[in-house]
Amino acid sequence: MEDTKEATREKSAEEAKTCQEEIYTTTFAFSTFLLSLSTSVLVCLGELPDPMKNEKSTNLPLAKQTIGIIEMLKEKTKGNLTEEEDKLIEGILYDLRMKYISIAC
């Protein structure tokens, strides 16, 4: 009986270690980061509800700042992006700028 409990504990410890390794070794793609920033802008523009309040509201200065961050990333990564990433960042910036203009003006 004790051997079974010990084996179960060891197995659980090994599974926990494997799970932790998976968490720490997971890498996020640049595109995932861009989409996260884009979603933040959409929340600030009132296009999506704030996940904490579950309400739509606008914060134009923060939306503009986050669009600026995406623009900065585009400039700083110029020449280092794949064709797909380059198209994604171009499309995201175009869409967000158009939405910003339509709401701000």
Main attributes of the structure:
mainly alpha, 4 helices, flat, 105 residues
Please state the CA-atom Rg, rounded to the nearest Å. 21 Å
* Tertiary shape: flat
Total domains:
1
Largest sheet: none
Question: What can you see in these coordinates?
Answer:
With 105 residues, this protein is an all-alpha fold. It has one domain (28-104). The chain contains 4 helices and no strands. The mean pLDDT is 86.
Any chance you could write out the topology, listing elements then pairs?
Layout: H1 2-25, H2 30-44, H3 60-76, H4 83-104
Helix pairs in contact: 2-3, 2-4, 3-4
The gist of it:
With 105 residues, the protein is mainly α.
